[in-house]
Design goal:
The structure holds three protein chains of three kinds. Chain A is built from 14 helices and two strands, in the order ββαααααααααααααα. By secondary structure, chain A is an all-alpha fold. Chain C is globular. The relative contact order of chain C is 0.16. Chains A and C meet through strand 2, helix 9 and helix 10 of A and helix 3, strand 6 and helix 4 of C.
Chain lengths: ~350, ~375, ~300
Amino acid sequence: MSIVTLRAGSWLSVPVRPRSVAVAVSMLFGLLVTAVLSLTLGRLGLAPSEVIPALAGAATGRDAIVFDTLRGPRLAVGIAAGAAFGVAGTLFQTVTRNPLGSPDIIGLSAGASAGAAAFGLLWTGILPLPLGALVGAGVAMALVFLGTGRGFSSPSRMLLVGIGVSAMALAFVQFVIARVGREQATVLAAYLNGSLASRSWDHATTIWISLAVLLPCALALSRRLQLTEMGDEQADTLGAQSAAARILAVLVGMGLATAAVSVVGPVAFIALTAPQIARRLSRSPGPNTVLSALTGAALLALADLLVQQLPGDVQLPVGVLTACLGGIYLGYLLISHWKKGTLA
Amino acid sequence: MTSPNPTASTLASPVGAALNPPTGVATAAPADRRRRVFGLGAGLLVTLLVLGGTVLLSLAVGNKHVPLTDVWASLTGSGAGYADAVVNSRIPRTMLGVLAGGSLAVAGAVMQGLTRNPLADPGLFGVNAGAAAALVTAAAFFGLGSAATSVWVALPGAFVAVVIVYLVGAGGGRATPVRLVLAGVVVTAVIGAYIQAVTLSLPAVFDTYRFWVVGSLAGRDPGVILEVLPFVVAGLLLALGLGPSLNALALGDDTARALGAHVARTRLFGAFATTLLCAAATAAVGPIGFVGLAVPHIMRAVVGSDQRWLLVYCLLGGPILLLLADVLGRIIMSPAELMVGIVTAFIGAPILLLAVRRLKSTA
Amino acid sequence: MTLTRTRAARVGDTASLSTPGTPRQPATPPAPPTTRLAAHHLRLGYGRETVVADLSLDIPDAGFTVIVGPNACGKSTLLKSLARTQAPQAGTVLLDGAPIGRMRSRAVSRQLAMLPQSPTAPDAITVRDLVGRGRFPHQTFLRQWSRDDETAVHAALSATNITALADRDMSELSGGQRQRAWIAMVLAQQTELVLLDEPTTFLDIAHQHDVLELCSRLHADGRTLVAVLHDLNQAARYATHLVVMKAGAIVAQGDPSTVLTAELVQEVFGLACVIIDDPETGTPLVVPKATPGSRPARSGFPPSA
């Protein structure tokens, strides 16, 4: 028996898989280690003994500057954005019933990038960048919704239309890059890869508030989404109202992904891989919301740590690394599936 | 340009007809078949005329408009003065458009036939990414940046990428369409990360790359045309020869085998032809999306699912779409120009949406 | 209960063949229906296409109703509308006298369960988890797994005889075992009404028998079953109430032994047959007539057709 139920009186009873808990705890531990390392490593790193005082706001002198303006917000943004990507990914993958159905592929990240490019460089001063990204993402999702002709009820159509919308948005971004000056283009290109460099506490506040609001929504939806995995008819007869659940899930996922994109840019593959890793480690079906959030946070924090500590002068955007590693992981995933014969 | 008549007669051959169940031609009465072949042949002629018109348009329209009579005069050798110079300056980009458009559309049709996926795009097998990575590498580490050498760099790059996609796709045994597409996504992503890493570290390379990566017919070296021509011709011949096998393949691997088609060989040749065509086009004009996706779709609505007709129609339809997109790009932001790659994305994506909407219920 | 029994019998007695082209509707009661589940002048279809024009049907309580008919006669569509997964274009489905479309979906799901024709099992799910998903209508966000859920799953597993398989992965099961697991999921829903859309499709003959015996046991336990079946002989053997559909209308309904006649099979399915008594159960058994000359006298198959 692989499930333990937590009970409190008759009003609370939550089934828990010991394996999932174990995975979550190790993931949390990994995240913690990564966090400490990214605060302490390198020339500017805090002394290990200074980490706790810094977190308590008692750091002084150089350490205070490093923590408050450099490493601290960067880490806070990275963790929350990673979690947001992870949850958005698991929502979209469940809605599309396809491991490839992440915001990267469905057109959402590209739409947000296009919005950011448009309002950040082309029509400056109309909207702040995060709102621009939200507008872009909203337009992209609306196009996908209308483009399928059946809303979000046909997963495969969603993927296909998403690819089209993605391509359109990316063409627009490239157009913007080719039109503006080299300096601006470089900045924009770095942003469009996704970067955690020079984030501020404002960024951190934005993303943590979004996460605090939207994560409970995702949790509340996840059981209904779990049922849609069995097909709409079955889910509907169980009272899950699959069509409504899907629209809500897309909206919540859109909110999370856009919030993350607006603070760190469209970091590739976190949303795609985090839910897959979470699912494989926990071996439990359905949207593993909490675990995907933890995995996403750990992945992004770790990738950023690696990027920060890379030898050489060049500071690569973290998105380049996640694209590379995520791509390799995905390739491994596919091949191992094929060897087992469990995929196409 | 392929003349329609010999093609039509070969298509009506009994062997071809026997291998053609998807359109129902094999079961139709001979009179019906003859009428159909005649209709398709006539349609081909019309398409050819439209292409001719588009070429003239491409020579006439732009920042400086030239009346069609002057265009004709220039082409027949009796043009003079400023108009003649303008028209002559537009000849290379028009030729590039014809070459690239035809290559991409035919490559797309082959790709869609091979993967049995009506939404497959030549870029899926990593062709564009491979070519781009090779160009970026050459520019960054060997200082090769000139247009004249680009073909010789881009072609091997594209080939290497496709081979990797194949190896990853066949990693667990058979290389099925789904596996290849997924492998393409993976390889493209990793190569994309490499390109970003290089371009973001080297601003000079980034500066050329950001213009190259939006496909454009303008500002390319005319010498490129001659360099890519052999590859395009070889690729086209190979692709057009695959028509009957692709028809068989459309019925599923097992049925195709039962009909005597060599499935593995068709896949290999098809992938080879696609790579040749795409790599040549990409080397010449940069990555241009959606022509390979949209044109076969539009043409399928005209000719049905017979691959042999489809390939020929795509050969003519590709240039039409690409040149029209180029002309449009010259007009809408005049006096500035919109790169053709952006125009095709904005024309092609809605076509993709329409195609998806027309799909019967997909699981 | 007795009321509905007599009512079902009455419908059975009046079962008759209608003339082709004008299928007769069973008389709709002027008063609210006396059965728990009833369809009232339904028009069903997809988009502009109408599959069922005007259909009324009372599902006898505590009966095993089987709907049969040729392909594309609208029988699955009818079942879907009864289960609320397809909204009718006109007319209503009444559950306990209330229009089902206006009820809260979880409230419906606590009364009525349906197993679709080809449900998809999520990846890497165990039988126990799958069956547990049938408990969704009884759960809340905070009460995600109560002791009632536990007992219901346990009961469903043992009712379908798959307790031993509970911790196996769905993908490891045979077709028949998988279908049992799905039925267990529906049972865990603990509803009195259970709808099954072709539960025997893709199963070999032994497993078909197995599943139908299981259904019949569930019916004997007091549940109201409605199933769409392909096989006339199976329908005749297990149904207590047979509904025969053709082209979106009910052609005949009632007790299988009265309803199933050679003329009916000829008219509805276009198959010439004789009806004999099933040697095991005494229910009607449809035996297609041999076409003269279609079979050579010798037993071997001719080398070339």
